[in-house]
Write a structure and sequence with these properties.
By secondary structure, the chain is of the alpha/beta class. The chain has nine helices and eight strands. Strands 1-2-3-4-5-6-7-8 form an eight-stranded parallel β-barrel, surrounded by six helices. The two termini are 23 Å apart.
Length: 220
């Protein structure tokens, strides 16, 4: 298995510098990761750095809280694509979801998906903040909105991905939607376990360690 082709090589730190992004993109090219996942301000730089390579550019929208307006999420996503992004990872509005205003949650996601068309959309449902039934309901909303991936976590809350949550998502979406596991996946063996249960993409800042088959203490 070429595990590198599953990895969204992630650098979303608030302190990430241009030098960090340059190094990050060079790592992605060296290890042939699927993409880099970076904040949108660095998309134009990444576009220059990755020119001529097969590495995609993924960026985040409404990150990390999901609580910005739908209009701002739509604008942010469209601008990122204009700047060179190939994929969008948006955060579901967790507070509105927990208010059980599911129609508004659906509209928030659907408006972004409609605005970006065929560009792949991953929706972060933040599993650490949801019950089992909440994970099911959020995944169902994502299906109704015709997103491309359900993503587990931002990596900015108390917990990241879990195998249990991914199994719940997989049972809910079946083969109608892909899954991205993110948050706390820091070594080869852990990444492999997620892929073995049906995850199509791994979001991690430990892509190099995973690529090298290393065991490490996972962070985001």
């Amino acid at each position: 298995m070429n595990i590198n082709s599953y990895i969204d090589h992630t650098l979303l730190s608030v302190t990430a510098t241009e030098r960090d992004i340059i190094d990050h993109c060079n790592q992605a090219k060296t290890h042939k990761f699927y993409s880099v996942c970076i904040n949108s301000c660095y998309v134009p730089l990444a576009k220059q750095l990755l020119k001529g390579s097969n590495v995609k550019i993924c960026t985040v929208v409404g990150f990390p809280l999901g609580a910005s307006s739908t209009a701002s999420k739509v604008f942010e996503a469209k601008q990122a694509i204009n700047d060179g992004a190939d994929e969008i990872d948006m955060v579901m509005n967790i507070g509105v979801f927990k208010s059980k205003n599911y129609v508004e949650v659906f509209k928030d996601i659907k408006d972004v998906k409609t605005a970006i068309g065929k560009t792949p959309l991953k929706v972060i449902i933040e599993i650490s903040e949801l019950s089992k039934n909440g994970i099911v309901k959020a995944s169902e909303i994502c299906l109704d909105a015709k997103v491309d991936f359900v993503k587990t976590s931002t990596g900015f809350t108390k917990n990241g991905a879990t195998l249990t949550a991914v199994k719940i998502i997989r049972k809910t979406v079946r083969d109608k939607c892909k899954i991205k596991a993110s948050g706390g996946i820091g070594d080869y063996e852990t990444a492999r376990k997620y892929i073995d249960i049906g995850v199509e993409r791994i979001g991690t800042s430990k892509g190099v360690a995973i690529s090298n088959g290393e065991l490490s203490n996972a962070d985001y």
